[in-house]
Amino acid sequence: MDIELDRKEIERRCDEYFSIYDEVTGERVYEMCEAKIEHSHIVASNCDHIAHDLDFSRYDTDLAWLIGELHDFGRFGQIIVTQTFRDSDVWNHAHVGANLLFDYGLVDDLIPNWGDVCEEDQLVVYKAVYHHSDFHLPDGLTEREHTYCKLIREADQMDIFRTIVESGWETIYGHTKEEILASDFSDAIVQAFFRHELADYSKRTTYADYHLAHIALCFGLESLAARRKSFEQGYILQMMDIEFAQPEVNGAFQKIKAEVMDYLDC
To answer: How many other CB atoms are found less than 10 A from the CB of residue 16?
Structure first.
C-alpha cells in the first residue's frame, strides 16, 4: 500500500538542513548555496508539474517531487570545498549527494516515514539522485527507475536556465559575462549541439563553451510539458539574448538560436 509523503514537513526539514550553510560561508559561497537551495525547491515543483502532466498517481507524483527536493544535496559540500559547480573525478555532486543521503542515513532525518517506503521505491529515489547528472543513463535500470531518472533530469535542466539568468554568469561560471562574450565556441561543443546532443562537459575548452553547453540542455527536454514550460518561462530566451564580441562568433550564435527556437516549437 502506498504511503503519504508529508511535503510540508519534508521541506521544513530540508530547509533546516540547508540553514547550516548560512553559518559557515563567505559572501560568494553563501550566494552559491542560496542559489542551490532555491533551485532544489523549484526543481521539486518542476517534477510535480511533469508528473501531473503524465497523469501520475498522487503517490507517484509525491515521489517525483521528493526526488526533486533531494537531488542536489551533494552541491553544498562541493561549493564549500571547491567554490565551483564543476564536477570532477573526485567530486561528482550527484554521486556524493546520493551517498550522503542513503549511505550515511541523512534521508531518515529528512523524511519522517522513510522506513515505510517500499524497498523498490527507496532504490528508485537513490538511483534518480545518483544518476541525475550522468552524461547518459546506465543500462540495467528498471522501467520505473528509468521513468524517474528521466523525469528528474528534465526537471533539473528546466531550472538551470532560470538559475543562470537570476544568479548571474559570474556566480554560475566563475567568469564575467564580458569574458564569455569575448570568447569563441569549440568545434566539439558546436557539433554536438547541432546533433541535438547534451554537451560532454569534459570537452569544454572555452568560456563560451560553458554557456552553450547549458543552452544545449534544451535537447534533454523530451516531454512536451517540459519544453512548453521552459519556453513559457522565457529564461532560455534571455540566455540567448546576447551578442558576442567577434562578428563571426555572433553569426554562428544566430544559427544556434534558430536551432533552439525550432526545437522548442510547442
So the answer is: 11
What CA–CA distance (Å, rounded) separates 210 from 216?
10
Among candidates 129, 153, 144, which has minimal Cα distance to 47? 153
Residue reference for cell 528521466: 150
pLDDT tens-digit map of 208-217: 999 999 999 9
Which residues fall within 8 angstroms of residue 255, CB to CB, at 6 or more apart? none
- Domain extent, residue 93, equals 1-168
- Measured in whole angstroms, how far is the alpha carbon of residue 46 from the centre of its chain? 11
Question: Rounded to whole angstroms, how far apart are CA atoms 106 and 1?
Answer: 24
Domain final residue, candidates 145, 168, 191: 168
Over the stretch 48-85, which tens digit does the pLDDT of each residue have?
999 999 999 999 999 999 999 999 988 877 777 766 66
Q: CATH no. for residue 57? A: 1.10.3210
